[in-house]
Amino acid sequence: MPQKSPKSIKHWLIASLSGISIVCVLAFSSPGDRFFEIAKNLDIYASVFKELNKFYVDEVNPNQAVKTSIDALLKSFDPYTVFYPEDELEDFLTMTTGKYQGIGIILAEINQTFRISFIEENSPALKAGLGIGDQIISVNGIALSDKPEADPSKLLRGQAGTKIVVKVLKNGQTTPQEISINRETVQIKNVVYSGIIQPGVGYILLEDFNASAAKELKNALQNLKQAGMKKLILDLRENPGGLLTQAVDICNLFLPKDSEVVSTRGKVEEWNKTYNALNPSTEPELPLIILINNHSASASEIVAGVMQDYDRAVLIGQKSFGKGLVQVTRDLPFRTKMKITTAKYYIPSGRCIQAIDYQHRNPDGSAVALKDSNSKTFYTKNHRKVVDGGGITPDITVEKISTSPFTNALQKQHMIFLYACYYRSTHPNISAAKDFSLNPTEFQAFSTWLKKQNFKFESQIEKQFHVISELAKKDKSYASMEPALQNFRKEWASNLDRELSAYQSDILTLLEQEIVQHYYLQKGMNEWSFSKDPSIREALKLFDQNTRFQSILAGK
């Protein structure tokens, strides 16, 4: 049989199978066999949907049903291959361009209310007097509580220049008010902070890699140099990545023209490409430290890994996430799109830092983490040993600050956030962000406030006790064991005062950070952290030890 196109195969298949039962044994030995299987299964899928639509007891929503089936299909590949229906196209464009039309806030649902948890500097919302902690009750007359299925962020967004009326209960007030705000095009910043944090030492926090990342970073570098910067700390922690081209352009700021930055290799050979630095470097000699952690991924790992491969920067922090996959976006019918993983990327040493094998899965369907024993050794420009798989290992490891179950519970139940709202309503002003701290008396005020809230906490020991107790009840000798079990329960029952006392230092840190953000937004929170952040302190210490800094890069 001559080879047919997928479309002609489908027509042939439908005609051939009409009223006939055929048994086929396929070895997938040719493209024709593969096209046959594709056409066959597409026809089966169409028939399944047709039968469901015709006979299922309830009405079938075609958009929702097909979206669910597509999502289930893509879930069998990797988390980065994603389908975007038309109604999610705006979110996709925001992710890639860093722009959206709205008022510049993020809402969090807390105790059946919607409160502002983040607000962009110079945004329409901030200009209108809104602040973190304010409760949004309605948008253009639509009460958020009456529309549980609606996405509040979509109600807030709209064409730039249009007016929006929000009913808001300001933090600390009892009477709601209506505020009229003009929507604008909001640019989500990649560089959320830049400044001199110690004489001669600049600091830049890069949070994303959307279309303006390299431009923003270049501008920040120029401003810091004018302010006296001689050394730089580039913070890529919590940066999930973004556009590969922006990572290449950022590397070009620190590397000579024509330096190889990254190469991509996939199934479609004509798409394989090597990206080189196209322009002369603007900062070829600037001493550089890069901060990473286990949430630094994708494009941020490219920048960190390339700088490490060329011995151009010292990396400090924790091992990065390990995303070595590249996606491209394909246009689909009816204004839909799909982001598809098409290749892996390789940095100049030759290593790929992908940590998860999505092709070979465990029996339960979960993806397999690559084993350290399978890692291969590569070498940097100065012949330092580096390995592939599992992310980028920093040159200096700073242990991640551990959190307790008690402090996790405080944050999960929004107690830290809500107390910061209360604190601001009772304190019109606080000291400068970098100087702000809470004293023991103010911690006691938090403790008193917490006891009046509907806060619930059960320790791990107490949870295990419940399991043991239920098992003991099934034993015939339970009656004799019960007094001892009850005494044990009293001894280890969760005690709020005990937990507050044990974790006072950690709780104070969380409270200070949240309170500063309510007053001074992102910029203030960064300034507060400089004297407390272990990775920043380690970076400043290393810059004071130039011999050690140079010896790390030299591989000595």
From TrEMBL:
Keyword Protease: yes
Pfam families for this protein: PDZ_2, Peptidase_S41
Keyword Coiled coil annotated: no
PDZ domain ranges (all copies): 92-157
Coiled coil: none
Domain of life, per lineage: Bacteria
Alphabetical keyword list: Hydrolase, Protease, Serine protease
PANTHER family listed in its UniProt record: CARBOXY-TERMINAL PROCESSING PROTEASE CTPA, TAIL-SPECIFIC PROTEASE
Similarity section: Belongs to the peptidase S41A family.
Protein name in UniProt: S41 family peptidase
Organism encoding this protein: Aquirufa aurantiipilula
